[in-house]
Fold:
Amino acid sequence: MEAGNRSGGQTRMPSMNGRSGSNGQLPQLFNSVPSLDEAVSYIAETTSYITQCFSDSPGIAFGSARAAPDEQEMVTFASEQTEANDHVSSNGNYSAFSRLLSTVTAAPPVHEGIFRSPSGGSSQNAGASAEPQNEGASAEPSPTVQNGISLFQGIIERARKTVRGSADDIGWLIRASEMPPVEDGTERYMEILDHIRHGVHKLPDSVVYLLVPGLFSNHGSQYFVSTKTSFSKMGLACHIAKIHSEASVEKNANVIKDYIEEIYWGSNKRVLLLGHSKGGVDSAAALSMYWPELKDKVAGLALAQSPYGGSPIASDILREGQLGDYVNVRKMMEYLFCKVVKGELQALEDLTYERRKEFLRKYPLPMELPVVSFHTEASISPAVLSTLSHVAHAELPTPLLTGELTKVPVVIPLGAAMAACAQLLQIRYGEKSDGLVTCRDAEVPGSVVVRPKQKLDHAWMVYSLLKDDPSTASPSQVCEALLTLLVEVGQKKRHELTKKDE
Structure:
């Protein structure tokens, strides 16, 4: 699919109307996780029992204007709404949740005025049976009963919001009808990558390459190091932006703007940016917010595994009104970011769907900017358990006490962690991801999209493995292929704009 024609003054304006998946149906969560269905059924039965306990209070008869004498228990039947909810799912899994909601969110109806006494007898005369012995008895529930019902309604609403999660938001940019279409550049990318692996390098030295790292890059000294080393060996000017990755998007956008201007005035060369993860979001924000000052200094932007549309992980953690509020999840994350990581919680908030929608509505990407977006799918095979990522070096004193320090590689099983997260997103939402970013949220509207078949997790792009596989491309080769494709996209776009002006 070819990208639509775009003029210099146009911008990519996203739609704010998200829907629950491409077909508009509810996610089949309970089909994938039977244990959740059992838990919901148990909660439904427990809530129904407790509601009956409240209904058995003296002088209270829910669904009736008057109380029954002799503490008669009212028999309720399933309403038509509950029966309809039972058929939401063909296998009945989702019906348990519907019954739970209808139990606590609506008063039980009276069917044909039938009441049953504790002894088992029934009365057909609802009017006579409902006549209270005490004319002054109130038909309104007591404050205690009202508070109890409200409490259960609040719990169920939080449970529903927690279970629903980000199902309505994932892929909202792709579903926006007015957004420009993407162009598939996977085939051309694979050709370029094959040439690079055979020693053919086409990156020009007429530009400066700026690599922008993502979240937590300040705590991993090897972030993008292998890529910069490879570029330097080819005689290319390459820099890694020294940003505070745990700062907000707008703060980092300002820092990146200063980087671009400093590089341009120092070298008189335009800048080609490659941002990974949040680094791609920060880079796109810099170009969106300061495009009038940067349009003559930037040659293009590549976003690798970036949550341009938002992240379900960040949204599910920080969304208000969930069950996590009872254990102060937000406070725990704030402590982690501010005290442990020495960052800002807003760095994570800026990656939620709500914040991304607000930001893109205010600062859309300029249409004349060449953009390449890249996303992958993490492997969930058992083999990832044996992979270790080299994230940093530790300096330790030598045993001979010579005063020299020995560098020891610090390795972490990031592949296993990414595989677990990818499996969670697959089970909960049915979405493919690299472990942190879903494929649909990483596609920038109007960009050339690369969708490789190779299984690569979120950390693979920037941290080298302890044992590299010579049969597959290295992270530096992938970055080189993406930037080479970006150069071609920029040349094609400039040709189209020149032709249009003529």
